[in-house]
Amino acid sequence: MIRLPRLHPALPDVFPDPEDSLDEPNGLLAFGGDLSPERLVAAYSQGIFPWFNEDEPILWWSPDPRCVFRTDGLHVSRSLRRQLRRDGWTVTADRAFAEVMRACAAPRAGQPGTWIGEDMFIAYSELHARGYAHSVEVWDGDALVGGLYGVAIGRLFCGESMFSARTGGSKAALVGLCDLLREWEFPLLDAQVTNDHLLSMGAIEIPRLEFVAAARRLSALPGKPGTWRDVIL
């Protein structure tokens, strides 16, 4: 039987030490609490994120190792660069947050459901309204062909999910985001859980202890709060 700490409903900034996370499933740390802006900001600042299905309680995670991008280390293939020039796609920020999040939540081939339920949509929409959650959109004319969303606190960006409506759409969003973060001196983009697709684009794994220390340090630095709508990518 798994025994987990339950988060106190009245203490949104209090979490267990991430080093107390379970080995199996990797990184499971606690359950309960809520998805209030205060709790979410506190979680990301400590290297913790929520991840749960709609039929589960809120689960909080901090896996070891942690998957991240160094913003100066993204691998962009020549074919993708050629595709971006050829197709004439444009990349924007915070122009269609709700649409991007809904697209990320849409069922995908081989997956029975989605972890981005209505509670998550409401919570991150509120974070977006407060200037913490941001989207990156890729457009072909008026058509949304790819995008991603995540949370920025200080100089830490935590990616949550991405989607492609056309081949290369999510990669184009990631390239645009990394270019922007590098310009703003955000050294890390948190990708949370490792997979082959992320590794193929230059993601690396670092020890949880190293990531948590970086998250605490970077989230305390001055960042780019508020809307990114007027940013040129």
Characterize the overall form. Answer: globular
What's the CATH superfamily of the largest domain, by name?
A: Leucyl/phenylalanyl-tRNA-protein transferase, C-terminal domain
What is the strand content? 15-25%
Number of helices: 7
Low-confidence stretches: none
**Order of helical and strand elements:** EEHEEEHEHHEEEHEHEH
Fill in the CATH topology of the largest domain.
Aminopeptidase
Major sheet: order of its strands?
6-7-8-9-10-5-11
CATH class of the largest domain: Alpha Beta
Q: What average pLDDT do the residues reach?
A: 93
Q: How does the major sheet shape up?
A: 7 strands, mixed
Helix fraction, binned, reads 25-40%
How far apart are the first and last residues' alpha carbons, in Å? Answer: 49 Å
Protein name: Leucyl/phenylalanyl-tRNA--protein transferase
Organism: Luteibacter rhizovicinus
Function: Functions in the N-end rule pathway of protein degradation where it conjugates Leu, Phe and, less efficiently, Met from aminoacyl-tRNAs to the N-termini of proteins containing an N-terminal arginine or lysine.
Subcellular location: Cytoplasm
Question: What's the gist of this structure?
Answer:
This protein is α+β, with helices and mostly antiparallel strands and 233 residues long.
